[in-house]
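Sample entry was shown:

___
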Amino acid sequence: MSELNSFAHLGTQLTVILMPFLPFLTKLAEAGTEEFGKVVGAHGGQSAWELGKVIWTKLTGRPQHPRLEELGKVAKALALLPDDEHLQKKLASLLSKELELDGILFEELNRLVEESGTQRAHTVGDRSRIEGLYQELEKGTQEVKTEGTDSPIIGVSQIQKKS
């Protein structure tokens, strides 16, 4: 399995895709509000929200087991504390484990992410850094974002190819 298709890589991608929408997916905030509109507008628009909903439904809409309860708890905590790097890593780790244990889920979510054409690089925290990133898409959304002080974006190339 290539690095791009690894469980850890996809777990991290899913975390980045879900993070802005977790307050709405976990029902801590209400979709359809002004705040919801701002979040959706700032994070890829309606198609990104729809992708987030599909991913969340696939993760949480399966028969209940202990890992899903923990996933829900971490997602709610991250929705309340989105800058918490420990919670971000915890969610990515839980998702990676879930994908490793469920090959069908891994294949479905990997295909969804690939077909969505969504590429994001997002760091949170002071002295975060994105450097030497290359993104190339034929369709979809590209986003590079840092939050915090002294958090540079250096040497990023983004190419939107015409199909």
About this structure: Strands lie at 118-124, 130-131, 134-137, 141-147, 153-154, 157-160. Residues 80 and 150 are 24 Å apart (CA to CA). Residues 1-5, 133-137 have pLDDT under 50 and may be disordered.
